[in-house]
Design brief:
The complex is a heterotrimer. By secondary structure, chain A is an all-alpha fold. Chain A contains 13 helices and no strands. In chain A, 58% of the residues lie in helices and 0% in strands. In chain B, helix 4 packs across helix 5, helix 6 packs parallel to helix 8 and helix 9 packs across helix 11. The chains are: A mainly alpha, B alpha/beta, C alpha/beta. Chains A and B meet through helix 7, helix 8, helix 9, helix 10 and helix 12 of A and helix 2, helix 3, helix 5 and helix 9 of B.
């Protein structure tokens, strides 16, 4: 990739807001690579964590926000706890994901995680506590992976590990209130759950897999 | 010893046996756990990667509910809940800007003064290993386990303040106390993929397979955990891992409370040992630890 | 009284921010100021001539120079006054550069502040008194603390000039860290081959006295006259009788881990640290000697043909006087057991660079074989990790230890030479090879010796199947790296000795947050300290390689010799004085003085008709810090050149 550097890119509001929100001085990073060395998921990433930090240093907002890496971070905090420059890398990943939400910049192949998060939060907003059957069902339905983990379901029911109905609590109003206030203050948008693009993508992926297996 | 108990969502569903065994062990040892009335979800990972304030407000709401119960410390068992409650506490203590915003959301002032503890911490540091030893009905001799801590119990150390960062030992200490032999293995704090269980199952399968493999290689007959996500990834997905990576693992995944419960002479069924996907009966039966589950 | 004010532009350093002309004009409004002017560089020869001429023509008798810090040019202008026939202490410097122009941007306010600073100096100079320098004798001997390469070189240089020098070394032999090294970069000459001739030179030199197994107990006095107490720890071996034959240590049954070989092998309780030790006289380690612990054994005494063993020996404290002190206490290694990801120092096959040196050394614990300490097998795949403890704010120190890049490259080369079918992997962040032939050396190791350099860090080391699994990243390829290694060598950083701060406090020299001793000026006085007569050399100041250490050792020697060759020591007259009539004898000043420069004295009180005790300042020792004047409740102590009256008037004029 080629990147034109100027005053504007280096001092973009992107960097400033990041440093303010995370309390992290991004220029502290001296690119030792300790974060990438210990990251359990970096084998799947398009950019290593240290590369993401480098791109942030250079003000490459679009490339960073549309990267797969930020959605692959499992928040295991290995990077944060080992960084010799005391940078909270995992917190920066969180920030980048939140920013990607507000800017509607999730990459097309990485819609599952944002979708899951939305369904999860909607689920809590509704019930106060997690209703797992609802979560799994909803996720499978909306991501187009209708039969994912279905084989595991009967065992789970038999062992009473998953309930058929949500827990009832007496304070659902209170939870909704928290969501309402946080959303407004946090300016994070929780838009529609229905994502025809993703549905189509996953269905067609399945179809292609079938065809290839037939070959 | 009285504590405000925050079970969290998992312990009321997929990790029911963790909840059951914790309550049983606490009861047997005279530790009083009073469930926080009307507790709500802590928001887990989806909250902190979607809305920062929400991820602080949900735990703080719970802590405030606990505070209203009197001057108790909060005890939780789920590693994710523990991490979120501790993180929220840390922010409320150290970051004025966030504190003010969160106080506005939950409608009450809070400065991070309520202590949040993990049940491990309570057992080892409040109740004490010596005391525990004195309460044992039997020792589970001959069982070799790998103690697996996962990510969120120890990281980041300045927030969790629980155990050693790279080589934690609280579960190992407990296991030794009840006669179980913990193996020395290097994957105590590796990541199992946790929150990707549904969304990126492939990653979870690979990471969990590595963990199972390492435990097996180092001679463990079972894995002992303190986190419901770790347990479900390693237990629930074990058959899929076997199929995908052509393995033949048959490693039961215990909660530390379940094994302690057995050593305290509590019936296996009460500890939820029947709820495991990889059945532990053979291992425990073979070792003559438990006639029938 | 005619005061002249001279305002310097300092090029644009001052003039760009301060309106110097306006300041000069403002000076003329001040009382007793008869003349003022400005000049581009007041410190230059024409600038000084300007002052001299003005003194002559206008009959000025006190001078204020508005320029840079007095620490830089106060001396220059005092000399200038002296040459014009005025007492040099009738000068004041108004620092309008460091205290004004350099720290401000707004020209108007900066000019206003510069005028205020000038006003203070003018007020102060009106109360200056003519003072004369005092002179003191010099004890013409040098103390060198530390007997590593640094201290050895200093002692040799001083002995060349035929001045007596005393080395105090804590260990049983001189030689220090360098004695443990195998080869030295980038020339690969053997460390012992170049060090031992120097050790022998020192031992044979009639001007050098060695106190090994000895420590500094107390330092008092001042430049030209330091009084030092030295604790000579009991060796339990009579140095006048012992010949170093070795009969004792060959028979000694008590075996403990050798400190010199970092625990890679054992030594006996009576021992010399290494074969070429100077002096070649053993010591008995009292913690481990069976006789000293429980009166059993006594074998060494029985076998000694010279009757040199004396179990009754006690520590001895001697007191000596010195004119100058050279501090050459060196460094210690960073303790890597804080790194959990590298195994908390528990894995036996994760070693430090110094362990590697000992193994590579043919007279070392493995006889020059590079093996795995755990099972003695030859090390084939060896991973080197740089920056362990260095450049790590979280677990170590923030600075770069400077040598690790080079010694790691050397180790990679030695590995290949010792074990030809081995492979070196080096994890690095940056390669810092700024020295003569250093970069070429690193390139040679990469190109000719095939060391694989990986740019990144190691996240985790663990043991599995008899190997060490090393997981890291190579940020250049963007890949995670896993290596099955036999041995891991950590390039641990260099840090100050554990008791460095204690020594610094004893010597009244400053040290930084890392306990490294601070030089008087980082560029222009790199081997001096702000305590005159105390000089620094080697790694006690900052990490240094051997060439730099030797260079600073010679530099410190020259500075010490520069003192000793003088007949008498000139001393600034800016010292405290006690007004005996006012002094109540409370002795608060004695407690406040950190230089032990105040004594008590009995005087006859005529009014009371009896004797009473008052304080008296020892002029030679007083450094003019002013602590005593601040604590004196009677205002009986005053500091020449900074009198209470001067300071009060300065405050009033503001």
């Amino acid at each position: 990739m080629k990147w034109f550097i100027s005053h504007e890119t280096i001092r973009s509001p992107f960097l400033k807001t990041l440093e303010k929100d995370c309390g992290e001085k991004i220029s502290h990073c001296y690119q030792c690579g300790k974060c990438s060395a210990g990251c359990p998921i970096s084998y799947q990433m398009d950019y290593l964590p240290n590369q993401i930090i480098r791109m942030v240093q250079l003000g490459m907002e679009e490339q960073v926000l549309s990267s797969k890496t930020i959605w692959l971070c499992a928040s295991c905090l290995t990077c944060t706890s080992r960084c010799p420059r005391q940078i909270n890398v995992a917190e920066i990943m969180d920030y980048l994901r939140r920013r990607a939400y507000t800017k509607h910049m999730t990459p097309p192949g990485e819609i599952e995680v944002p979708l899951f998060n939305k369904i999860f939060l909607r689920n809590i907003e509704l019930h106060g506590r997690l209703f797992e059957l609802g979560l799994i069902g909803m996720f499978n339905l909306l991501s187009g992976k209708f039969f994912k983990d279905v084989a595991l379901a009967p065992r789970m029911f038999l062992k009473r590990k998953i309930g058929l109905f949500p827990h009832k609590i007496n304070n659902s109003k209170e939870v909704k209130e928290i969501f309402k206030k946080s959303g407004k203050l946090g300016r994070a948008r929780r838009d529609k759950l229905w994502q025809p693009k993703l549905l189509f993508l996953n269905l067609s992926r399945k179809l292609i897999e079938r065809i290839e297996r037939l070959k | 010893m009285k504590y405000a108990y925050y079970p969290g969502c998992s312990l009321h569903s997929t990790a029911k046996e963790y909840d059951l065994s914790t309550r049983e062990v606490a009861k047997a040892l005279g530790i009083e756990l009073i469930e926080i009335p009307d507790w709500i979800c802590c928001g887990a990972t989806p909250a902190h990667i979607t809305m920062h304030l929400l991820s602080l407000a949900l735990p703080v709401k719970n802590i405030i509910k606990a505070r209203a119960m009197g001057s108790y410390e909060i005890v939780t068992c789920c590693a994710a809940c523990f991490s979120r409650l501790k993180t929220a506490n840390y922010f409320m203590r150290t970051d004025d800007e966030h504190r003010q915003k969160v106080e506005q959301i939950v409608g009450e002032p809070y400065k991070g003064e309520v202590k949040v503890r993990h049940f491990l911490d309570v057992l080892v540091n409040d109740f004490g290993l010596k005391n525990l030893k004195g309460n044992l009905v039997k020792e589970l001799k001959g069982l070799k386990v790998a103690c697996y801590y996962g990510c969120l119990l120890t990281r980041p150390p300045e927030i969790t303040e629980l155990d050693d960062l790279e080589d934690p030992h609280l579960i190992d200490d407990l296991m030794r106390t009840i006669g179980v032999e913990p193996v020395q293995w290097p994957y105590k704090t590796e990541c199992c993929g946790a929150s990707f269980s549904l969304t990126k199952t492939d990653i979870v399968l690979k990471l969990s397979c590595d963990i199972l493999q390492m435990a097996y290689d180092e001679g463990a007959q079972a894995i002992v955990v303190a986190c419901p996500l770790c347990q479900s990834n390693l237990d629930l997905r074990q058959s899929t891992i076997n199929k995908k990576y052509k393995k033949d693992f048959n490693l039961p995944i215990f909660y530390f409370t379940q094994l302690i419960g057995l050593a305290l002479g509590i019936d296996g069924k009460k500890l939820g040992l029947d709820k495991h996907i990889v059945p532990p009966a053979a291992l425990l039966g073979e070792k003559d630890k438990l006639a029938k589950i | 009284m005619k005061i002249g004010v001279f305002v310097c532009h300092c090029g644009t350093n001052i003039a760009a921010t301060v309106d110097v002309e306006k300041a000069a004009k403002a000076a003329l409004n001040l009382a007793k100021v008869k003349f003022s002017t400005t000049y581009k560089y007041m410190c230059s020869s024409p600038g000084q001539a300007l002052i001299k001429d003005a003194i002559k023509e206008k009959g000025l008798d006190r001078i204020v120079v508005c320029a840079c810090s007095p620490s830089l040019h106060e001396k220059t202008f005092r000399e200038c006054l002296k040459e014009s026939g005025i007492n040099p202490y009738l000068l004041e410097i108004a620092n309008i550069r460091e205290h004004c122009s350099w720290v401000h941007r707004d020209r108007e306010t900066a000019t206003r502040k510069a005028i205020e600073i000038m006003k203070l100096a003018v007020t102060k100079v009106t109360h200056n008194r003519p003072l004369e320098k005092t002179h003191m004798p010099i004890e013409k001997r040098v103390l060198v603390i530390g007997g590593g390469i640094s201290g050895i070189q200093s002692a040799i240089d001083i002995s060349f000039a035929k001045f007596p020098v005393v080395i105090v070394e804590r260990e049983a032999s001189i030689g220090g860290r360098m004695a443990r090294f195998d080869k030295t970069f980038p020339t690969l000459d053997c460390a012992a081959c170049i060090l031992t001739p120097k050790m022998v030179t020192v031992a044979q030199n009639k001007y050098v006295t060695l106190h090994t197994y000895a420590e500094i107990e107390e330092v008092t006095g001042h430049v030209g006259d330091f009084k030092v107490k030295i604790r000579k720890k009991a060796r339990f071996v009579d140095t006048s009788k012992c010949t170093g034959c070795g009969a004792c240590w060959n028979k000694c049954p008590a075996k403990v881990a050798s400190e010199f070989d970092l625990g890679l092998c054992k030594r006996t309780a009576i021992y010399t640290p290494f074969p070429q030790a100077v002096p070649n006289i053993p010591v008995i380690d009292r913690e481990n000697c069976l006789y000293l612990k429980s009166k059993k054994c006594g074998l060494c005494q029985k076998v000694c043909p010279f009757g040199a063993i004396n179990y009754q020996m006690q520590d001895e404290i001697i007191e000596e006087k010195f004119g100058a002190i050279i501090v050459a206490t060196g460094f210690t290694q960073f303790d890597h057991s804080v790194y959990g990801e590298y195994g908390y120092g528990k894995y036996r096959d994760v070693i430090t660079g110094l362990h590697f040196e000992r193994m590579a050394n043919s007279s070392g614990p493995t006889g020059g074989k590079i093996i795995r300490p755990s099972d003695g097998k030859v090390a084939r795949d060896v991973v080197f990790i740089q920056c362990v403890g260095s450049r790590d704010e979280q677990k170590g120190v923030s600075y770069c230890s400077r040598l690790c890049c080079m010694y790691t490259a050397k180790h990679a080369l030695l590995l290949k030479e010792h074990n030809p079918d081995s492979q070196a992997y080096v994890f690095y962040i940056d390669i810092r090879a700024a020295g003569k032939n250093y970069e070429e050396f690193v390139k040679k190791v990469q190109n000719e010796y095939g060391a694989v350099y990986l740019r990144g860090r190691v996240s985790r080391i663990f043991e599995k199947g008899g190997k060490l699994i090393v997981r890291g990243a190579d940020t250049l390829s963007g890949a995670q790296i896993e290596i099955k290694a036999d041995l891991v060598v950590l390039a641990v950083g260099l840090i100050a000795q554990n008791d460095a701060a204690k020594l610094a406090q004893m010597l009244h020299i400053p040290y930084d947050q890392n306990n490294l001793f601070t030089e008087a000026h980082p560029k222009l006085a790199p081997v001096e300290t702000i305590t005159s007569g105390v000089f620094l050399t080697g790694a006690c100041q900052s990490p240094k390689d051997i060439p730099d250490t030797v260079a600073t050792a010679s530099a410190a020697s020259v500075k010490a010799l520069g003192l000793l060759v003088q007949d008498q020591l000139e001393k600034e007259p800016l010292v405290a004085r006690v007004d005996k009539n006012l002094c109540s004898g409370c002795q608060a000043c004695i407690k406040a003085c950190s230089f032990n420069a105040i004594e008590t004295k009995e005087v006859e009180d005529r009014a009371l008709k009896r004797k009473r005790t008052v304080a008296e300042v020892i002029e030679g020792v007083c450094s003019g810090c002013g602590n005593c004047t601040a604590v004196c409740r009677m205002s009986a102590i005053d500091l020449e050149g900074f009198s209470n009256r001067q300071i009060m008037e300065e405050i009033e004029v503001l």
